[in-house]
């Protein structure tokens, strides 16, 4: 269909659809880096992996709306940005299996009916992912009443393979349908260690069953964006919302390290206000919240839809809260002049955050007091350690001095005793010499002979040592 050695970017649009069929197998675009195909429907001549083989250096691929009903594999070593909107095929909606073999992909936007299996997911370089895994109403009921005997439900649990493949992302978006589907793999949900930014969309007919485990499995999350707060209340909403009173209320929020929370589509309903109060109470690390009140066709409790930015920041030892009104109101894509805001509504919204501010200030003061006490105890401990060390060294010196003095006295006593014995022997010998001269001569001779023998023995020993 297309043959070019220089074409770098190709965009295809058609009101009647795109059927890449006739001559499709002869496509050769070795330099194409961007391919954008958009239409009401798109049909490809071959499987997707064979189709992509015709573009060896392709980096960006946009495909909407592809129709497929069988096994498909997105395989490309060069792709960095991929966007796919799939719509099933006629009466068949859920594909059998979808695989991604794109090790260098950085950005993925994928909307499709949830597949029965995801046998291969290689997305090792992925940084950002936007997933919309769609289900119909009948399938939603099967998910909520899931059991191990339903074949369809068992297959949908394979979505955990896709979650495992994207676990290294830093930015992530889940649609309301996706959150519903994820309730089937709560036990196998991976830990998103690198995730910093999480955006979630809610719908009144979709549940939050997977929300608690999702928040607990994001240990380094910094920003959480809620596109709507209203959702279908079920007995499995968990402790992430305030819909059902539970004993372990707010546990998943307490363990979540999120610092910034954005709420979009705020309409001022009582349920939304209760949810905001719940978040402020249990998000222990929350520093800033932004609430966006958007314009809707339905009436709201806000006179002038605008953007409210409610900030709760910790500055040294003080906790401050403020409401910043941003003059950003859009209607049909254009900026319009903002009106006046009811003072009553301002005070009502501000009152939602005042208890949290006071609570944060009290907690911070208590923490500072405990820290000061710990510092004082540490100083006392260090002083006692230094004093004990000085005492130990002094005691050691005393013991050493005593041992040396004792050894010296023993040595002196020994030397004195030997000298006294020698003097006594000489005096006795002199007495014997005076009384018996012959005995004295014999003793002198014996003594000289002993000395000569001793010298001879020492000479032999020295001679032996020299020979060795």
Automatic annotation (TrEMBL):
Biased composition regions of type Basic and acidic residues, renumbered to the chain: 445-468
Residue stretches in coiled coil: 357-384
Gene3D superfamilies xref list: Ribonuclease Inhibitor
Presence of the UniProt keyword Coiled coil in the record: yes
FBD domain mapped to chain residues: 251-320
Keywords in alphabetical order: Coiled coil
Domain of life: Eukaryota
Region of interest (Disordered), residue spans: 443-468
Name listed for the protein in its UniProt record: FBD domain-containing protein
Species of origin: Arabis alpina (Alpine rock-cress)
